[in-house]
């Protein structure tokens, strides 16, 4: 959103913040309108509704005066203590007389982002629902006289059960070096569009013995998810019992402070590209590249289909368009310089 907003402030979405969670009341916020029309006096009003169409706030009809079509006249109204009952997309609709002249989405955010731990848990839970694979990172470890085994990351398929994640590890299935010998791993989910990091959490690892009731419960579910099996049903489960480990991963989100600190750290996980710092000259040259922030509809449709909230999808689609156009312009400039 920031990248796109540098060239088109219209990318920035209207946001109101509420104190604590929902239901809650808003902090004071401004409704800013700019009109351009024939000179004269008009009656104007606006209405704020929630995702269900329920009116939450409405301005009384008021007279406004426009100076003429050559001018943009700005009007501001402050709203206070509006009660918000959910975090869905709200809408502000503007009227001149009885005619609707504009409508914009309004997004709600808990003040300060709410509980960092709750946000981390919710993000990770959403990632689990949308993903068929996760990336697991086994930390660096000692391997007897052979010395140190470096950190290792690879994708794995998984089974989610409640707040636990289960992995089958062993011959004939996914084999992750060191996975059965470590007490903790790092698990992360990546977006389907850009493979960018969506959620990451440290997990405690427990080996589930075949005699444990969790084994039957999880492997019965795993059989339905595993594709391209050489066997089926009970034969698959018996093979797993004979050759594989079932590992239970328990996410450790920690306190709000820990979750907030973890979210703020840059991550260099598998596939994460490290961007080189720009020189002053290249940064200045970059600022000269002005691109209209249009929506890349294909990207937006794909993100929405993947369950990404519309506000985030729209911002990413605009930012993707800006980045793509800038790369094209940079390539053209490089060719011209050569």
How would you describe this structure to a colleague?
With 338 residues, the protein is of the alpha+beta class. It is 29% helix and 33% strand. The chain has 8 helices and 19 strands. It has helices spanning 2-5, 116-130, 213-225, 233-243, 256-264, 280-287, 297-305, 310-337, and strands at residues 15-18, 24-25, 29-35, 40-49, 55-58, 62-66, 73-79, 83-84, 90-96, 99-110, 133-138, 141-142, 148-149, 152-157, 159-161, 164-169, 184-190, 197-208, 245-252. The chain has a 7-stranded antiparallel sheet with strand order 14-11-17-18-19-16-15. Strands 1, 4, 5, 6, 9 and 10 form a 6-stranded mixed sheet that branches. Strand 4 and strand 5 (55-58) form a beta hairpin. Helix 3 (213-225) crosses helix 4. It is elongated and about 85 Å long.
Briefly characterize the structure.
With 338 residues, the protein is α+β, with helices and mostly antiparallel strands. Helices cover 29% and strands 33% of the residues.
Report the radius of gyration as a whole number of Å: 26 Å
The H/E string reads HEEEEEEEEEEHEEEEEEEEHHEHHHH
**Major sheet strand order:** 14-11-17-18-19-16-15
Number of strands: 19
The helix-and-strand class reads alpha+beta
């Amino acid at each position: 959103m920031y990248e796109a907003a540098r060239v088109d402030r219209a990318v920035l979405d209207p946001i109101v913040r509420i104190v604590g969670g929902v239901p809650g009341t808003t902090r004071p916020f401004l409704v800013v309108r700019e009109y351009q029309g024939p000179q004269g006096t008009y009656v104007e009003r606006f209405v704020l509704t929630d995702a269900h169409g329920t009116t939450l706030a409405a301005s009384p009809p008021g007279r406004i005066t426009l100076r003429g079509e050559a001018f943009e006249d700005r009007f501001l109204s402050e709203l206070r203590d509006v009660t918000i009952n959910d975090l869905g997309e709200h809408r502000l609709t503007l009227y001149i007389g009885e005619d609707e002249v504009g409508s914009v989405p309004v997004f709600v955010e808990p003040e300060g982002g709410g509980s960092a731990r709750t946000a981390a848990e919710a993000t990770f839970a959403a990632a689990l629902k949308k993903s068929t694979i996760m990336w697991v990172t086994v930390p660096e470890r000692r391997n007897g006289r052979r010395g140190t085994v470096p950190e290792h990351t690879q994708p794995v398929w998984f089974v989610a059960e409640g707040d636990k994640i289960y992995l089958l590890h062993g011959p004939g299935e996914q084999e992750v070096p060191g996975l059965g010998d470590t007490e903790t791993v790092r698990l992360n989910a990546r977006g389907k569009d850009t493979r960018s990091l969506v959620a990451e959490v440290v997990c405690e690892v427990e080996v589930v013995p075949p005699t444990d009731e969790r084994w039957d419960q999880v492997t019965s579910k795993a059989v339905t998810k595993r594709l391209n099996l050489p066997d089926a049903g009970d034969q698959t489960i018996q093979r797993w019992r004979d050759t594989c480990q079932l590992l239970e991963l328990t996410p450790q989100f920690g306190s709000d402070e820990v979750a907030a600190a973890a979210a703020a750290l840059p991550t260099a996980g598998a596939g994460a590209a490290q961007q080189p710092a720009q020189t002053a000259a290249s940064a200045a040259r970059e600022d000269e590249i002005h691109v209209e922030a249009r929506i890349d509809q294909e990207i937006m449709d794909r993100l929405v289909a993947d369950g990404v909230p519309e506000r985030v999808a729209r911002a990413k689609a605009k930012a993707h368009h800006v980045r793509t156009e800038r790369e094209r312009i940079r390539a053209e400039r490089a060719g011209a310089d050569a």
